[in-house]
Each structure stands twice: as C-alpha cells, then as structure tokens.
Specification:
There is one protein chain. This protein is mainly α. Helix content is 52%, strand content 10%. It starts with 15 loop residues before the first strand and ends with a helix. The chain has two domains: 146 residues, Ribosomal protein L13 (Ribosomal Protein L13p, Chain: A, Alpha-Beta Complex); 59 residues. The radius of gyration is 52 Å and the shape is rod-shaped. The longest helix is centred in the last third of the chain and has 60 residues. The strands form two sheets. The protein has a three-stranded parallel beta sheet. A two-stranded antiparallel ribbon has the order 3-4.
C-alpha cells in the first residue's frame, strides 16, 4: 500500500540566501527569488505550506532591463480620490524606490492571498551592497553543514526495516569445572540412580509372578472345600 508523506510544521526549516542583483535582468532575479520564497528548491515542497526560505537582495538599484523597457514600463498608484492616479516609469521608480521594483516583480510570481503575503514578508531588499542580516546568514550556513553531516551519517548506517528488532545472540553459559570431591559425589549419585533403574524392572516382573502362584495355590483348596460342604449338608439333611 502506497502512502503519501506530508511534512509537519515542526520539520520546516528556513535558510537565508543572499542575491546580488547588480547587472542582472529583473525577470531573472525575480524568478530566482520567488522560487526560494516558495520553497520549490526543497524536496519537501508543498504548494499549500510556507516552506520557503528568507531571501536578501542587495544592489537592487543596479538591476537592469532589456530594450526600451526602462521607458515603456509604467508603475501606477492611486490615492483613492478622484484624479488621484499617479504614474512613474521604470527608470524613475528605480531611482527613487529600487526596493519596490524588486518587490513588485516578485509579488507577481507568488500565490495571491494570505499565503503569498506571508512569503513576501521573508524578502529583504536593499538598494546598496550592505545588509544587517549577516548573523542570520552565518547561522544558516552552520545549520546547513549540520544537516549535511547528519545525512552523511544516516547514509553510512546499515539499512534496517521498520518494525523489526535487531537480532541478539542468546547468552551461552559455560559451567565451571567441578572440583574432585564434587565430581566424586556426582559420580556416586549417578551410579546409584542407574542401579535403581536396573533393579526396578526385575522387581516389577517378580511381583506379578508371585501373585499368580499364590492365586493358583489357593484355587484348588476352594474347589475341594465346596463339595465337602455340600456333602455335609446332605448328610445332615438325611439324619434329620
């Protein structure tokens, strides 16, 4: 019977990744970031779980686009009032808010709803080359090395099917060598037992033979006494 293994919330781990967007196409950077945020690079990927990692994007102000997209791409926003529609080109948006350029491109590749919003919170974008998450990155690298060592240790262990106990050899007790006196006592006891076993069958045979002889000797006496009794009774009857 085949069963589907589902990952538990306690088994989800999140690493930290740093991506340098300097000189890279916007679409390539957004695709890579979205893949890491969703967790598609992991063997435990579940489309309905937040199984992705944290992603840090640096040098967002140096991302590039091909062709005339820098002038043709327009970013719109609305204040909510009549006539409040505002527009900016890609070049203007990249100059003023380079972080929003990356976030906007990544958001278009994430699932919409609470799950996508939760994934987007794991994205950290910075316009320059510096970021304040160096401690998290180092801890993530150590955790990756520990998981790798654990997997190597499991791979070197012999395979043991589940539900079976390991085989254990029965303990063999070696009796101690008896002393000379104990050996003599054991020999005498063994000889006594053998003698009793040899004498027991002869006694059993002699007992039935003696009983048969006694029965045969008593049987004729009974047969002789009975006619005598009968004769006496008849004689007594005639006298009367």
């Amino acid at each position: 019977m085949n069963t589907t293994v589902r990952i538990k919330a306690s088994q989800i781990y999140k690493d930290w990744h740093v991506i340098d967007a300097a000189g890279q196409p916007l679409g390539r950077v957004a695709t890579r970031v979205a893949t890491l945020l969703r967790g598609k690079h992991k063997p435990t990927f579940e489309p309905h779980l937040d199984d992705g990692d944290f992603v840090i994007v640096v040098n967002a102000s140096k991302v590039r686009v091909s062709g005339k997209k820098a002038q043709e791409m327009v970013y719109y926003r609305h204040s909510g009032y009549p006539g409040g529609l505002k527009a900016r080109s890609f070049a203007e948006q990249l100059q003023r808010f380079p972080e929003k350029v990356i976030e906007r491109a990544v958001w278009g590749m994430l699932p919409k709803g609470p799950l996508g919003k939760q994934m987007l919170k794991h994205l950290k974008v910075y316009g320059g080359p510096e970021h304040p998450h160096q401690a998290q990155v180092i801890a993530s690298q150590r955790a990756q090395e520990a998981r790798k060592a654990q997997l190597e240790a499991l791979a070197n262990e012999p395979y043991r099917p589940k539900g079976l106990r390991p085989l254990t050899a029965a303990a063999v007790v070696v009796p101690a060598a008896p002393s000379s006196e104990a050996a003599e006592v054991a020999r005498r006891a063994r000889a006594r037992v053998l003698q009793q076993e040899a004498e027991a069958p002869a006694a059993e045979i002699e007992a039935p033979a003696q009983a048969a002889e006694e029965t045969a000797a008593e049987a004729p006496a009974e047969t002789d006494e009975k006619p005598a009794r009968r004769r006496r009774t008849r004689a007594e009857q005639t006298e009367e």
